[in-house]
Automatic annotation (TrEMBL):
The organism of origin for this protein: Aspergillus carbonarius (strain ITEM 5010)
Active site, UniProt feature: 44 (proton acceptor)
Gene Ontology molecular function: hydro-lyase activity; nitrilase activity
Cross-referenced SUPFAM superfamilies: Carbon-nitrogen hydrolase (SSF56317)
UniProt-listed InterPro entries: C-N_Hydrolase (IPR003010), C-N_Hydrolase_sf (IPR036526), Nitrilase/CN_hydratase_CS (IPR000132), Nitrilases_CHs (IPR044149)
Pfam families hit by this protein: CN_hydrolase
Domain CN hydrolase per the UniProt entry, residue ranges: 5-314
Family: Belongs to the carbon-nitrogen hydrolase superfamily. Nitrilase family.
Protein name (database record): CN hydrolase domain-containing protein
Length: 350
């Protein structure tokens, strides 16, 4: 049976509120559905926001009071998916955690909103989120299936540079791949968030699970990002989807810009985007998109400029493994071994 699906990456920008961002996500997903898309990826931190340029009033050995107020604003902008600080895994997926008194669900309803959008459109949604649990924030990505709802959730295990100040480290067990069937095709989906793709052992943990769709929501708009995505695709013999935000300075939250009054050029891009799609031999299927966002565009036809869509044949992954399978025949697993705390590296059952 053919293993063909249509996938998309959305170069979208966080809106001033979670509700407005969810509305924008719904609009883009509906448009993607009209184009026959089965799975769509949104950028890192799309819900909750990536606080680009903000230093939260910190220097080594010092914190300014206004930085704590900025963190409070950012904390309140994050979403609550109803998980625990340690991460409840399958208990969270299967809704086995206790409910708050008088409520029908845990969290703030964002999980349920995403599940409804996915169900109504028939599109599998993967979305970067800033998730709050207890007193900490996590940079996460949620998998939402149109039939079964939330299948799982990644938490970034290694925030990069200044991100470490504001985001906690996620459990490596969340590197667990998820499986689903779309358009009759069987998918094994893994996600590495931004610079996690620069971690060779983390990449190998996803390859070991035999992923045929490697998702890379990111905040990196550097020229070096596309070569990395091509390396990942060719190394893992997997399709790679990467989505980034495109943001002008004037689109940053007020609590960031008011603390930097000297930055006057509101039209300056603080992130130019670069969302792309790469095939399992490292070929660029959709070149990076620059300086355009789905949120800049009002007409459905215009959305195509910030929405990369491509038909893929998942059997190309097996074709590519004729000569290279870094978790199998090419791995020399008699000489090299990888273990990940709390994670079964065997391919999940289909």
């Amino acid at each position: 049976m053919p293993q063909k699906i249509t996938v998309a990456v959305a170069q979208a920008s966080t809106q001033p509120t979670v509700a407005a961002t969810l509305d924008a996500l719904q609009k883009v997903t509906r448009h993607a559905a009209s184009r026959g898309v089965h799975l769509i990826l949104f950028p890192e931190a799309y819900l909750g926001g990536y606080p680009r340029t903000c230093d939260f009033g910190t220097a080594v050995g010092a914190r300014a009071p206004h930085g704590r107020d900025q963190f409070l604003e950012y904390f309140h902008a994050a979403i609550d998916l109803g998980d625990t600080p340690a991460g409840a895994g399958d208990d969270w997926v299967n809704r086995k955690l206790p409910l708050p008194r008088g409520k029908e669900y845990r969290g703030d309803g964002t999980r349920e909103a995403l599940e409804k959008i996915s169900r109504d459109t028939g599109v599998f949604i993967v979305c970067g989120v800033i998730e709050r649990a207890g007193g900490s924030l996590y940079c996460s990505a949620i998998y939402v299936d149109p039939r079964d709802g939330a299948l799982g959730k990644r938490r970034k295990v290694m925030p990069t540079a200044s991100e470490r100040l504001i985001w906690a480290q996620g459990s490596p067990s969340t590197l667990k791949a998820v499986t689903t069937e779309l358009n009759g095709a069987r998918l094994t989906i893994g996600t590495a968030i931004c610079w996690e793709s620069y971690m060779p052992l983390l990449r190998q943990s996803l390859y070991s699970q035999n992923v045929n769709l490697y998702l890379a929501p990111t905040a990196d708009a550097r020229d070096t990002w596309l070569p990395l995505m091509r390396t990942v695709a060719a190394e893992g013999r997997t399709f790679v989807l990467s989505a980034n935000q495109c943001v002008r300075r004037r689109e940053l939250p007020d609590w960031i810009t008011t603390a930097s009054p000297g930055q006057s050029d509101g039209e300056e891009y603080v992130c130019r985007g670069g969302s792309c799609i790469v095939g399992p031999l490292g070929e660029v299927l959709r070149a990076p998109i620059w300086e355009v966002s789905t949120d800049d565009l009002t007409e459905s036809a215009d959305l195509n400029a910030a929405l990369s869509v491509v038909d893929i044949d998942l059997e190309d992954c097996e074709r590519g493994r004729l000569d290279m399978d870094v978790a199998g025949s090419y791995s020399r697993n008699d000489a090299f071994k990888l273990t990940v705390e709390g994670l079964d590296l065997n391919p999940p059952p289909q």
